[in-house]
Amino acid sequence: MQMISQSSEWASVPLLPHQHRGFVPTMGALHEGHLALIRKAQEQNDQVVCSIYVNPAQFNNPEDLARYPRVLAQDLEQLAEFPNLIVFTPRDEEMYPAPPRVRFDFGKLEQVMEGQYRPGHFNGVALVVAKLFHLVQPHRAYFGRKDLQQTLIVKQLIDDLAFPVELVVCPTVREEDGLALSSRNRRLSTEQRQQAVLIPQTLFEVRRRILAGGHPLPELYQFVSEQFAQSELRLEYFQIVHRQTLEPVAHLEAPAALALCLAAYAGEIRLIDNVVLTLKKEV
Ligand code: AMP
Q1: What predicted TM-score, i.e. pTM, was given to this entire model?
Q2: Ligand 1 centroid from CA 143, angstroms
Q3: Which of 88, 199, 234, 274 could form a disulfide with 265 if both were Cys (CB 3.0 to 4.6 A apart)?
């Protein structure tokens, strides 16, 4: 493993002209979901860079930023299984030498779901991803489908700013009971951890009902609000959307590529998850 903490050190990890560099941006507090991205990147590239940087610009809530887990020593221990990995840990002074003034506008994509409930979040994500792409200069970048809306924002950023980067979206890694791995899970109490399983259970049940057919949209929405009303979790949103545009689905009609997206609070801890499904036309 090689550590890089400032841009001048990139010269020490050169790439030959025909080689490819894969990039896995993270905010640390690493778990199997992050490690799966790194493994995939290592399969597909000659060199892999994993960044660990808690990006202040993407936190709309200062308390959330303050409480975000920072466990670099543990992270590095986990990364020891990847002998050739380059770990990039940029510092705030280099990432934000002055308050950024550039603003992104992703239109409808950032007005729904995470964008609606976390104003400014995707502006901060786009800012840090653009900066990291410039610094790391990857050929491929690996993101988790767990943050579906983020993957669409990054795709738009790559296309609009012509970054020569291929976006690789990897499946969500889950605990055995279905809970999506997240750095925030480590803040859950034992009770909250048990309650949180309602999130994937609900998403998988709605997917099952949609695929089985005969369940109108209002009934599905009502099912979800009832599930959460009876629990200790507080539902922030549940949306059945088109997977590419995130526009709400008006009718369950095949063919369609859909996503079921949800955010909920366990106490102060905000968790998000989604599952995807495809409605195929019968032949
Ligand atoms: P984060 O450190 O939370 O910013 O996440 C860094 C990357 O890991 C993002 O691309 C996330 O979508 C991805 N990621 C987070 N959790 C998971 C998971 N459970 N499965 C797959 N990817 C994940």
Answers
A1: 0.96
A2: 7
A3: 234
